[in-house]
From TrEMBL:
UniProt name for this protein: Probable transcriptional regulatory protein M0651_19715
Location(s), subcellular: Cytoplasm
Biological process terms in GO annotation: regulation of DNA-templated transcription
GO CC aspect terms: cytosol
Source organism (scientific name): Paenibacillus mellifer
Amino acid sequence: MGRKWNNIKEKKASKDANTSRIYAKFGVEIYVAAKKGEPDPESNRALKVVLERAKTYNVPKAIIDRALDKAKGSSDEVYQELRYEGFGPNGSMVIVDTLTNNVNRTAPEVRSAFNKNGGNMGVSGSVSYMFDATAVIGMEDKTIDEVFEILMEADLEVRDIVEEDESVIVYAEPDQFHAVQEALKNAGITEFTVAELTMLAQNYVTLPAETEAQFEKLIDALEDLEDVQQVYHNVEFAE
């Protein structure tokens, strides 16, 4: 399980390096989630997940409110959720989730990022079968036993609970995200180090130093694209 959390940390650290980009992407994601149903997280589970994620990335309230106001207003901007899959150097695997209002722009940009950085796009399903959709929730100042007891009292059986880097991490089925977080909140836990619905690789690989550098350029190029919301991969970066 350690590799999974380390990869989430790596991705989050990379994203945190450019807050303006993060805020812009969250603005789109919040707007799209709010347009799917009511712009109220208590009645719109998709929106609630996005807002919980936004909190762990310290997205300002002004950004959130602006996206919600846009969804409540007369905006008819339509976004499509598209997933692209591909391979990086040495057969590494990459999943790219996008939200786009221009499909004709997104696909060529994603393909170009792959081609220019030692990778290539695959067909739908060529990579995703090696990943598992997973809810990941992390917190500090708790032990594994304490978290296990909280979840047991809530009658929740999750995939795993591990301790790493001074955090306790819960891995659960995607449809358990809200139940797990609510159980933890009811036990007095209000701050989370991670709260994600993510794709975790079933097996991770390490790359030679020079190849790892090329792979990082590929991930950076993909994450820099306007329409890309999430990038998942199966590479464990060296410490």
